[in-house]
Design brief:
Layout: H1 2-9, H2 14-39, H3 41-49, H4 56-59, H5 64-87, H6 99-121, H7 139-161, H8 163-167
Helix pairs in contact: 2-3, 6-7
Length: 171
């Protein structure tokens, strides 16, 4: 019994430390890229595509680089959502250990995304510079915003319901 305690008490191996460093670096890169795109996709596109005028919406139809970038960014977003979906399965096996994943993927992501989508999907006399102006609604964006809102509410309610048990270490 003393031997098993010693084994658990030892430092991690160099391989595990390398893995943790790779995870930390990739996490930091993901955070930086995510923040950059969340704050202003136009600034990110300007870094790679050169000068994009303020009335960028009129440029979209004539700029193959911008259209290609938007197309492939949408595909990458699909991969991200697919990965997030698989990641949300992990808490089924250990709800207490992976509760942070539930908070980030099931509450934070859908909450912030729903706000962005609904705010910019309902173009009813929009006042901000980054929204398209007009008196209409962009249906696919609003539907995705509603779906993410429902996910947020469902997950947040269940997180609140299980909060006391989680603090006590019960599943």
């Amino acid at each position: 019994m003393q031997e098993s305690f010693k084994e658990r008490d030892t430092l991690r191996s160099a391989k595990t430390n390398a893995l943790q460093m790779a995870v930390l670096i990739s996490g930091a890169i993901y955070i930086i890229i995510g923040l950059a795109f969340m704050i202003s996709p136009i600034i990110v596109f300007k870094l790679f595509l050169g000068d994009i005028p303020e009335d960028w919406i009129n440029l979209v139809g004539n700029n193959e680089s911008l259209i290609a970038s938007l197309y492939y960014m949408a595909r990458v977003f699909g991969v991200l959502i697919l990965s997030a979906g698989f990641l949300m399965i992990m808490p089924l096996f250990d709800p207490l250990k992976y509760r942070g994943i539930v908070y980030l993927n099931g509450a934070f992501f859908p909450f912030v995304s729903a706000i962005i989508l609904l705010k910019n999907g309902l173009f009813i006399d929009a006042k901000s510079d980054d929204a398209i102006k007009g008196d209409f609604m962009h249906v696919p964006i609003v539907i995705l915003g509603i779906v993410l809102s429902v996910i947020f509410i469902m997950v947040m309610v269940t997180l609140l319901i299980t909060r006391k048990d989680a603090k006590e270490g019960r599943e």
